[in-house]
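Quick one, probably user error.
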């Protein structure tokens, strides 16, 4: 009877008023084997239990609560005004014993005992509400922490895909999406040589400040960071219609010019042997998870991506003339309508030859 005593001492304001009468349940003790069901969801609530020994698991799957000796289970459905039905399945975790309190027992209570009993039940429920609130806050914090971690490895577009995949049957199948995208490729030229003899931590710090500038500008322009590639960066914008094509091209071009300006200010102030190149190109792509089994690799693929990288990689045109720091493909240039931005782009196109021997036409920045 120690569990009943412990229960009353914890929750009842006047435990002695209820102790003797509740002792009559001693002849209604139930023993459960490991994983044996105490009650099932949908059962009629004709009794409730005080756990004597062992553990009772309330719920199934990921939505479970574990109750231990001296705790009540099943009392909520039992004490509803209209006789209720169980809303959760309960099972034993290991060999477990419980005192079963039937509705007939409560009929023996005097008015004074009944009042004391409902006051005790109110205390039990108040504590369970508090526990549920704490658990909810903990789960919310866990979700926020998980979301924060995922955002460090997956772009917002990928995070939406992951969240959507959780709603599917297998929870891992992220369907690829065919669309049109604006691609950004950038590279901090000369960085590998500059950091060859540098401490690894210092090299990382140096690179991080150049990347942070670009990330800040890209996010401000509603772009998505696809990946970091050594001293380079790849980003994208979904542009499935003409309105978004023109809007995102203006935003991305401004972000690129701002990045070039801010990075070059650092380079010039510190007299660093570095420079920045950024290429922008638009075309059809496939966006999705292209990783292996058990590992997500959310990225953009397609010939447009390969071509976009060429604009960043080019050094000079076919006449050996230098290219500006920002290189726009024709698909980007002809949809750039912001006059302030166009004033910073050379009106004369330049051609360059990629490593594979293919010629590309580009419009480059004056700077």
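Nope, works fine. Designed sequence:
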């Amino acid at each position: 009877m120690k569990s009943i005593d412990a229960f009353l001492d914890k929750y009842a304001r006047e435990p002695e008023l209820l102790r003797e009468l509740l002792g009559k349940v001693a002849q209604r003790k139930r023993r459960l084997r490991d994983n044996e069901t105490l009650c099932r969801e949908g059962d009629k609530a004709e009794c409730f239990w005080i756990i004597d020994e062992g553990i009772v698991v309330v719920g199934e799957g990921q939505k479970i609560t574990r109750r231990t000796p001296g705790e009540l289970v099943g009392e909520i459905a039992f004490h509803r005004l209209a006789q209720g039905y169980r809303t959760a399945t309960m099972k034993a975790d290991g060999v477990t014993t419980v005192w079963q309190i039937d509705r007939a027992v409560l009929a023996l209570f005097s008015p004074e005992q009944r009042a004391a009993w409902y006051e005790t039940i109110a205390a039990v429920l108040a504590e369970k509400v508090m526990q549920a609130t704490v658990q909810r806050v903990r789960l919310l914090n866990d979700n926020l922490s998980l979301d924060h971690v995922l955002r460090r490895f997956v772009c917002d577009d990928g995070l939406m895909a992951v969240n959507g995949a959780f709603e599917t049957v297998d929870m891992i199948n992220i369907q690829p999406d065919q669309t049109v995208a604006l691609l950004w490729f950038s590279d901090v030229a000369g960085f590998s040589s500059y950091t060859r003899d540098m401490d690894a931590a210092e090299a990382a710090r140096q690179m991080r400040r150049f990347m942070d500038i670009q990330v800040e500008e890209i996010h401000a322009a509603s772009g998505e960071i696809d990946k970091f590639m050594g001293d380079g960066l790849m980003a994208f914008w979904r542009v499935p219609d003409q309105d978004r094509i023109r809007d995102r091209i203006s935003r991305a071009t401004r972000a690129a010019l701002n990045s070039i300006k801010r990075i070059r200010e650092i380079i010039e102030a510190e007299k660093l042997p570095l420079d920045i190149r950024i290429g922008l190109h638009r075309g059809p792509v496939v966006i999705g998870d292209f990783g292996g089994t058990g590992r997500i690799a959310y990225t953009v693929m397609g010939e447009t991506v390969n071509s976009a990288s060429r604009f960043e990689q080019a050094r000079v045109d076919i006449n050996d003339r230098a290219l500006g720091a920002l290189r726009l493909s024709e698909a980007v240039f002809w949809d750039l309508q912001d006059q302030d931005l166009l004033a910073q782009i050379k009106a004369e196109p330049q051609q360059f030859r990629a490593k594979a021997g293919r010629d590309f036409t580009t419009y480059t920045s004056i700077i």
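The two ends are 86 Å apart (CA to CA).
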